[in-house]
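Final report, section 2: Outcomes. Of the targets proposed, MFS family permease is the one most frequently requested by collaborating groups, and we therefore present its record in full.
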Amino acid sequence: MFILIASGTVLGIAGTDLVLPAVPSLPGQLGGSIEVAQLVLAAYAFGTLVGLLTFGELGARFDPRKLLIWSLALFGLASLASAEAPSIEWLIALRFAQGAFGSGPAVFAPGFIHGLYPHDKAAAAMGRLGSVESLAPALAPIAGAWLLEFGGWEISFVLLAASAALIAAAVSWQRAAFPRPQQMEDHHSYLFILKNFEFLFYALSQALSLGALLVFVFGLPAVLTGPLDRGIEDFVILQVCGIAMFILAANSSAWLAAKFGTLKIIRTGTAIMPCAFLAIFAYALTGSGSLYVLVPLWAVLNLGFGIRAPIGFHRAISAARGDHSRAAAIVIAAILGIAALGTTAVAPYISVGLWPLAFTGAVISALALLSLVPLRDVD
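The predicted structure is given below as tokens.
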């Protein structure tokens, strides 16, 4: 059950990361500029935002197991349609639909996890889920770069469609083994959850932290292959090193929280992020782009996020008092909303270099740290 839950959420993440290496080449294939091509990423994020809130509401009214199957099936159809897009504008529109349909697994995963594991094991399970999900940003760009070389940008979308069909079939086959809806959660409303200030601040900090990271990652391939005049393989190297550090940190997160206090570790990990972004910003102002400098700084940034991510997400979901689907929808929608807005805002400055991305990441992650100020630890 855990493997199927993780596979569904990984597929939604791969919808961005598998396509990332192809973004710089899209203007030459479908027309438009590199700035317009960045909207292929932003549209997916905006679509996911809409889908998260929609599936969060549907999950309170219908069987999440059936909704998970429909989400995967429609994601597969949107992926196939994207592969046949005749222009960059059509691809942007289809990417919005793809993101919306692919958001279901992320909404239902926390509820399924809490149904499968007792409360004291759920945080560790969420950490494992985060570690599995983090493999997508590390491995998907490698696969995407190889697929781009092998068969063009379209083949990535075909692979997403085929994967969605397989996972949907497996979930349908094992549907009876999934936790039943009444085992999973209590339902309130979005307004009820948003009135909970503990949830609000934890959710905002989580969203700003990951949003800052995603804005940087979404723009990095275009900067590396554009103004820095490097190859897409450099992006792959950075991702692999960063994700390896994230996995190590994420799997230590629950242990550190038990030893030193949950909120203290969340604050520590969050504080590392703006410091690392500012270090990248200072280096970027020199106009250089050596991996010997960027890799260690990127690893430190992912260390900070890995320390705070699993326990931060779990604390936010727990603060929602049992409505896991809506809480997850709010948190992930906020993440994607921040990522989409940040990506759109920084897109006109992609040709300048790395510093606009690093500066934007520093500002957003600093706001994530400020969001934790009103909170008090309950450990």
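The chain has a mean pLDDT of 82.
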